Amino acid sequence: MSKIVTLGEIMLRLSPAGCARFVQVDNFNVIWGGGEANVAVSCANYGHEATFVTKLPKHEIGQAAVNALRRYGVNTDHIARGGDRVGIYYCETGASMRPSKVIYDRAHSAISEANPEDFDFDAIMKGADWFHWSGITPAISDKAAELTRLACEAAKRHGVTVSVDLNFRKKLWTSEKAQSVMRPLMKYVDVCIGNEEDAELCLGFKPDSDVESGNTDAEGYKGIFKAMMEEFGFKYVVSTLRESFSATHNGWKGMIFNGKDFYVSKRYDINPIIDRVGGGDSFSGGLIHGLLTMPSQDEALEFAVAASALKQTIPGDFNLVSVEEVQALAGGNANGRVQR
């Protein structure tokens, strides 16, 4: 069992039941989620000691968020308490040709206004094996970006492997702002995860034209991965590749490069998708588990892709699957027969 730390924002997600529209419902389902919280839940499910770091208000809604993490075995000892509000996002689940829709209401959330003195990052990183963050966290606010830098510095002081999911969010910041913040943070990163759009908008790596035209030829990605590795010194560059036929039917696979070997996973046809929110986070959680426990990058990637394919069949943000379930799918058991 490894100790894995993640830093970010857990939010209250309010969603209409099923595929109903915002304007037609009288109540919303309460769901908890958010990039790095989702990764922590995945890692806890796989048997690791997963610690999630954030700041939440002292009131009962803040406590409900803490309880949601504890329910799945995530360590909440380093969650600072204080501030005025929990970030909220509204999520309407799409179907067929109607896409899902997200509306954020997260300004002035507790973690966006948190200060460095709210956290002892040296204590948090002591004994840790892995630290994961995403591009969403520094995008929340300049204060959150500073916290991300301090956490990365502490991780490096303690010899912790650092991974990032680039996760560009156009509703949170511009590409220019993202690059000004994200590029300097890359010097702390060992494992970089992100699709070709993230690489372009967060780091300024323009995809080759054959990639842009929808050609998923691996060589097009290999060139980007190589350039990213040469500039930033990553140990691994990893990407998911989603083919979006409709809101409820996607193709899904991944690629990984360690500077020498380039590997493309098997492809999954996910139809119907139940909830794709958290799909990328479940990939990150699966990849972390795979790289920590498996002998090759190929096996680690296959585990991550299978884990994230399964996530998209589960309502909510969290990927509530076991190692055995992921391994069964990665090993070829995708028929969905009842397990008796």
Question: Explain this structure to me?
Answer:
- The protein is α/β, with parallel strands linked by helices and 340 residues long.
- It is 37% helix and 21% strand.
- The chain contains twelve helices and 15 strands.
- Strands 1, 4, 9, 10, 11, 12, 13, 14 and 15 form a nine-stranded mixed sheet that branches.
- β12 (236-246) and β13 (249-257) form a beta hairpin.
- α11 crosses α12.
- The mean pLDDT is 93.
Chain-wise SSE layout:
Blueprint: E1 3-7, E2 11-15, E3 29-33, H1 35-45, E4 49-53, E5 55-56, H2 60-71, E6 80-81, E7 88-92, E8 101-105, H3 121-125, E9 130-134, H4 136-140, H5 142-157, E10 161-165, H6 175-185, E11 191-193, H7 196-203, H8 209-212, H9 218-232, E12 236-246, E13 249-257, E14 262-264, E15 268-270, H10 279-293, H11 297-311, H12 323-330
Parallel strand pairs: 1-4, 1-9, 2-7, 5-6, 9-10, 10-11, 11-12
Antiparallel strand pairs: 2-3, 7-8, 12-13, 13-14, 13-15
Helix pairs in contact: 1-10, 10-11, 11-12
Give a nutshell description of this structure.
The chain contains 12 helices and 15 strands.
Largest sheet: 9 strands, mixed
Instruction: State mean pLDDT (0 to 100 scale).
Output: 93
H-E string = EEEHEEHEEEHEHHEHEHHHEEEEHHH
Q: Alpha-carbon distance between the termini?
A: 29 Å
Rg calc:
19 Å
Spans of 5+ residues with little confidence (pLDDT < 50)? none
Residues in β-strands, percent: 15-25%
Q: Which structural category fits the helices and strands?
A: alpha/beta
Count of individual helical segments: 12
